[in-house]
Design goal:
By secondary structure, the chain is an alpha+beta fold. Helix content is 38%, strand content 28%.
């Protein structure tokens, strides 16, 4: 396999890993694969490294064991009920022009000391923790 072809395959696999799940249209847009038929031809080369499923009559790709090993990924994605949620996050990622600092499932946690509950248990004090898990986070402007 030529080095250009290998680099292209690894780049596509890294994008799929970053997105967790990817439609052909997502790869087409991110990697500027021109026409949909060309994108399908390129994606066909990924078949040894990806699992395929369908969602709303569109092909959805995610990495298999060989694909994860090739790019050194430890993130294992299984086909489950959150497909629609992940694909919707990917649509937002594309809408905002693929921000560099995009993070999914970003946890924001704030600790507030509750003065009325100033009780200690073996050196631990009670505090009110507020935790929010954002679907995605990135900085803008």
């Amino acid at each position: 396999m030529t080095s250009f072809k290998q680099a292209r395959i690894e780049s596509l696999l890294m994008t799929i890993d970053q997105l967790s799940l990817a439609k052909i249209r997502h790869l087409q847009q991110i990697h500027d694969l021109k026409s949909y038929s060309n994108a399908c031809r390129v994606v066909k080369q990924l078949s040894p490294y990806v699992h395929e499923t369908t969602h709303d009559k569109e092909k959805v790709l995610y990495l298999n064991k060989e694909g994860r090993q090739l790019i050194g990924s430890t993130k294992e994605v299984k086909r489950n009920m959150t497909i629609e949620h992940i694909l919707l996050c990917n649509e937002a990622y594309l809408y905002f022009n693929c921000p560099i600092d995009w993070k999914t499932e970003y946890v924001v946690e704030v600790k507030e000391r509750v003065p009325s509950l100033d009780i200690q248990f073996k050196g631990l004090s009670l505090s009110d923790k507020k935790k929010v898990v954002a679907d995605a986070s990135f900085s803008r402007n």
